[in-house]
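new request in #modeling-help
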Amino acid sequence: MHFRKMKDMKLTTRTGQLTAKILFATAYSVLAAEVFLRIFAPQSILPRYVCPTDYGIRGNEPNRSYWHVTPDYRINIRTNSKGIRANGEIPYEKPPGVKRIVVLGDSFGMGYGVDLQDTFTSQMARSLEKNGIKCEVVNLSVSGHGNAEHLVALKEEGLRYEPDLVLVAWNSSDPDDNIRANLFGLEDGRLVRRSKTYLPATKLQEVLFKSRLYRLVAEHSHLYTLVRDKAANLVKYKILLTIRRLSNAANSAQSPDESAVAEAASKYRNNLTTAILEEIRQQCASKGANLLILDIPRRVSRTEFKSLFPYDEAKDSKLDIFNPIRVFQQHKGDKLYWENSCGHFTPLGCRLIGEGLAEVILKSGLLNRKSSDNNTTEILRTGRENEQFNQWVDSQKSLDFFGVLPIVII
Amino acid sequence: MPFNSITFAVFFLVVYAVYRLSGRSCRLQNLLLLAASYIFYGWWDVRFLAVIAMSTVVAYCCALSIDRGQMTAKQRAKASAFLILAAIIFLGIRWDAVKFSLPNWRPSITVDWNNLLFADSQHYKLILGIAAVTALFNIIYPFLRWLKDDHRRKFFLIFSITANLTALGIFKYCNFFIDTFRTLVHSLLGISFNTETLNIVLPVGISFYTFQTMGYVIDVYRRTSRATDSLLDAAVFTAFFPLVLSGPIERGASLLPQFQNPRLIKASNLKEGLWLIVWGLYKKMVIADNLAKIVNATFAPFDNPGSALAVPQDGLQMLAAIYAFAFQIYCDFSGYSDIARGIAQLLGFDIRLNFNLPYFARDPSDFWRRWHISLSSWLRDYLYIPLGGNRYGSYKTGRNLMITMLLCGLWHGAAWTFVLWGMFHGTIQTLYRTLAHNPDSPTRKLWILVIQCVVMFHLTCFGWLLFRAQNLNTVGVFLQSILLHPGLSPEAANCFSNVAFYCWFLVLFQAVQGLTGTLNPLPRLPRFVRLNIWLFVIMSILSLAESSGGEFIYFAF
């Protein structure tokens, strides 16, 4: 009996030791991984505080102040009571003698990567003021938004600011975001509302961000950022593949040719994007505002930039588009995008875009309110390329082990 | 399905689970390995499996006929049926018309019946051709017994070598020879004619498995290895998936018995196998793929044959790019070999070493004992020694070395830069042999050893310049830039710092390997140090791996 007890005790001690060893190894591994990342591969820590809005899409959390820290920069993001990245409150009523520009976009539009005074919207406003136009920017951009969310945000919130001009910062991820959001679809070529809400993972985020410890980890841990980004990219990629498969399946009934199916899916995506942008334009026109689209180029290298805007599908529309590739080419070799930090614009990149936008607005008189929806401005389309998003996705098909996709946070 | 893809990870996990579950039956495991190998290889292009099947049958029949004098009727029937069936399955069916999917985790197979068969008659002519040759072989075969034993053995050896070299010649060198012939005729006779180069796609790994089967038949001819009676063993020996794409080129005497005997998988095998896989992934994904960016950015302007660019003024950047390529190609290829050996170890196989710290080599002979060992030893055993080796004086030794290295260069690809690379290595080997009193005598002085290693590394780097350059003009431009304009620009400094950043751990680890005298020093290190090394390597793969990394370089060979 005594012998058995001794044996049991020994076994318990051994199990305890093993458990302690495993716990120590796990805790040490986490700590060592964090140290490794800080020394050898610092991550871009870009926490995104979004919450559901009353109109069923994501909005920036109101009255938040947080830091974005990357190997390239450290900036503060501050939102007002309406979740707008601004230093103060912006009333709906437009002050007399002031022109208003409502900006819709994603992280690029919101000015990730630069301080508030350096964002291209601030630079644009300053340039316009230098030319004697007093203007106020209402930046409704939210990281992760696509054009479908821009349209909803404009209808529900943007138009309440009585804008003279609406600026959509179009990003190459928008066509896929529009499909993923499923807020709108095309039926017989007409834009129809599909879903009332699109709130991916916001509930989970709300719950998690209630915990102070989680916030601390999310805002400071490189290991957490690495794991979250890998997981998010994987999920995004899987969703993208599922959507592609579904849309391919829908099209395959008409055509058995795989390339034709893929082309049709791409065409649908681009047509949907164009239809949403056209609807945004009509909404603006109904309130007498103009619409200008900023086509954000994709960076290939310091000297090469590509536009992925669906110009072919938009050729019959009345959209005014500003593409800064020509301006960028004049500064080729300079650092216009952050290269180690999710690829957002540097202050120089923002300045070039801001000044370019101001020039276009002034030359085309886009701040003069219109009574009809007739397009009166010069359509500015430069750097036109027929690059299709599908090609890019296909090139990424062979996923690297754990490496997944190099999708920027948008 | 490259080793560094999620697809392969899933594929291997499934195969491994079934493989371990069927551990009691050697035959069942071999069948599973054959199916897995064919799926793995067919992932690139199913049609090339017909080439593997042909290579298998040729090796099987020739080895048996050499070893036993005669194949039995049953063996011939089996081999013929296998070949014809393989031709029908791999050449007659359009496998892209068959789709496998997992909707809601339920496996489903959809077949596009309208496109299941090829529309053109080319594939069916090939099948008929294979069937005709098989029938002819079966008709002629019984008459071969009238040949003398020695003649018959020689006949089958020559037949096997000719068949393999013909396959290599058609798939790998055909266009090269047509182009060379056209250029030669144009330059010598002034006659220019338009011959269309054939639209032939190179079956991935053909140089590896043809050399493996050729080596097996030669070994049987030399009576250093026995032929296998089992067609299954011969098939899995030819197509074994860890090795089929980029080696190591195994020998029948060492690998075939492992298919015939039950596999013992010990915990130490698992540990070492896993380490080799992770270490190989680190070499490929962290070092090779990141250095590829530096290399490609520097070489890209010169890659276009028509480019006549000015000599760059920052020669040190060119030098950094060559260093980067030296590490890129080493990590790319040795990374693949490590992963292949690791996978094989998990499956219970012991695969020969392919790289043994090659940049620590003191002279060219030492380098070739450490670099791509399976190929260099193949060439030594089946080409250099039969040519006479170093037995007939320095002139013939030099000649034999030049022939061997020239063919080694040509083995890597059908281009004159590879031929030059081979000639360069042949020349420096000959020079070292001629100049050095006794090249193999080990020196005890560390500083002499270091100088020898540094000199050899730079000679190797010059070889890599020949290997990487797309044309001779590029070699000239790089040399001029390095020797005449050795300026250190910020870009050059950046290149050097990047090379140092990605390679420092490799160099440190290899120093430990060299000092401890073992390629796997982990078991000798304290547990805490081991944990940190594992963490470092895994975290590097997770955070530093180049996400758009390309395929393994040696797939092209």
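bot summary: Chain B has three domains: 21-263, 268-359+474-556, 363-442.
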